[in-house]
Design goal:
This protein is an alpha/beta fold.
């Protein structure tokens, strides 16, 4: 039987509170709740503050925010008290299940209010049941098509509601590491405490192994954390199961009498060391760091090159590049290349694949780039034949260099559109297009299960972080894990190539069009 353990967090476990990113989350949730309750927000500068915070990198300290933002009453109150009176009021008036609908794709505040007030829906489960019964589609402004889309999305979210992405799991790794260090009184307990779980896109259970002969000591230590519910497995004196965190994520701690030798990646493959980074966004579109900042950061990390690939003109919501922006960016790249030699910045673009499969720039514009990443960002509601044909058309375009995040999935939020991967990979081989392993932990797309079939067709794959800030460059580590799980080795990864090899490849592709 699971027992809820009460108590306070240990003083030396520091959990960051109210960073700029967290304040943004609080304010967005409050805005959403206000719309649900038809409340007016009393702050005139609300929209401007949100805009600034959305453009702020996740690791930006408070002191680096503009002074006119820091001095606002909203931020001063949030920093001092951790909350706002209106937010507290709205939360007290809203069932917790309704609040959890925040962030679910397709659920606007207006719709949530209708579901709640007109149909009595108070959580995802009751919304799913209402969709199944056909009650949601009868509401004004909806219909059976919208109802089916909601049913698909909510079913996906419910299926994975107790799962974590890899980056989320890593935060719990650090948390349990802190617990163990506190318990054992050791600063470095890596050899005594290891996380062990299968390399997957999302994780349903976190397994930890540690050297701890005293089960009661471990139980009492874990019991000091109010967010843990511990179930003592009576089948083994050194096995404890429980659930942790707001997502109710299960964990399993094995307490061993010997030091375990465990690894996240047990496959005996050669190491993959990337020599360059491709698919990087800057402030020219929706990135949070400038072109120069991204380039210098990659250079400091020891990479030989970076491929800048901001959004194209159809992605107006992301500040997609028009012709003047392209010219300005290319001039800046030329200037930086002279300054940073032998480090190289390649001129790339993430072009949108339009509904008919065409790319959203004419050939004379595409010819000005070193490479293009062709991706779908809009009109995602497609059947398998429509989606497959749309991408096949894009693959046949002579200026398509890479296929970006092929299925468009967002892990734990929405499934990808269905695709005939066999036909797509065959077409990639025929047209010499390199599939991307989008290493952003929210995507991990191309799925690792299709890496093997890609290699069988003689394809290379390329590991891209899809980085919108400097910190995002490091997401390539997740892509490397997926590549290894799919059976890829260094020679199968395009960006293990040197800067000269990549330059020659891009030049050859342009000259052959």
């Amino acid at each position: 039987m699971a027992i809820k353990q009460e108590g306070n967090l240990a003083k030396n476990i520091k959990i960051p509170m109210h960073t700029p990113k967290e304040v943004l989350g609080l304010m967005e949730e409050m805005e959403w709740l206000a719309h649900v309750h038809l409340e007016e927000l009393p702050w005139k500068n609300w929209t401007h503050i949100l805009s600034v915070l959305r453009q702020t990198a996740s690791d930006t300290p408070w002191t680096h925010l503009p002074s006119h933002i820091l001095s606002t009453k909203i931020l001063q109150t949030l920093k001092k008290t951790g909350s706002l009176a209106l937010r507290d009021k709205l939360i007290s008036q809203t069932p917790i299940g309704v609040r959890k609908l925040f962030g679910i794709r397709g659920l606007t505040p207006r719709r949530v209010r209708s579901f709640w007030k007109e149909l009595g829906i108070v959580d995802l489960q009751s919304l799913y049941a209402a969709c199944e019964a056909g009650r949601v589609g009868k509401l004004k402004g909806l219909g059976s098509r919208t109802e089916q889309k909601l049913l698909n999305t909510i079913g996906y979210v419910l299926h994975y509601q107790h799962h974590l992405r890899w980056d989320q799991a890593e935060s719990w790794d650090l948390f349990f590491q802190k617990i163990y260090e506190t318990l054992m009184g050791e600063k470095d307990s890596q050899e005594n405490f290891m996380v062990s779980h299968e390399v997957e896109e999302v994780l349903g259970e976190l397994v930890y192994s540690c050297f701890c002969p005293d089960r009661e000591l471990l139980l009492s230590s874990l019991g000091s954390y109010s967010d843990l519910r511990i179930e003592d497995d009576k089948g083994s004196p050194f096995s404890i199961r429980g659930r942790v965190g707001s997502r109710d994520t299960p964990f399993h701690i094995r307490c061993l009498r010997r030091t375990p030798v465990l690894s996240r990646d047990s496959q005996d493959l050669s190491p993959i060391r990337l020599r360059g980074i491709l698919h990087v966004h800057t402030t020219y579109s929706d990135g949070k760091h400038s072109l120069e900042e991204q380039a210098l950061y990659c250079q400091r990390q020891g990479y030989e090159y970076v491929g800048i690939s901001d959004h194209s003109i159809s992605a107006f919501y992301a500040g997609g590049l028009d012709l003047p922006k392209i010219q300005s960016q290319h001039q800046e790249i030329d200037k930086l290349n002279r300054q940073l030699f032998p480090f190289r910045i390649f001129k790339g673009i993430e072009v949108d694949i339009l509904k008919d499969g065409s790319l959203d720039y004419p050939d004379e514009v595409l010819r000005s780039f070193d490479f293009t990443i062709a991706s779908i960002h809009s009109v995602l509601d497609m059947g398998i034949e429509k989606a497959t044909q749309r991408i096949l058309t894009a693959l046949s375009h002579p200026y398509t260099t890479f296929l970006g995040h092929p299925t468009g999935r967002i892990l734990l939020e929405r499934p990808g559109y269905p695709l005939d991967h066999e036909r797509l990979l065959t077409a990639c081989a025929h047209h010499h297009v390199i599939p991307e392993i989008n290493a952003n932990p929210r995507r991990l797309d191309l799925d690792w299960r299709w890496i093997g079939p890609a290699l069988e067709r003689g394809l290379q794959v390329s590991i891209h972080p899809d980085a919108h800030e400097k910190k995002g460059i490091h997401d390539v580590s997740y892509g490397i894990l997926m590549a290894r799980k799919g059976g890829a080795q260094a020679q199968h990864i395009f960006n293990t190539s040197s800067v000269d090899e990549v330059d020659s490849y891009f030049l050859h592709r342009r000259e052959s069009t």
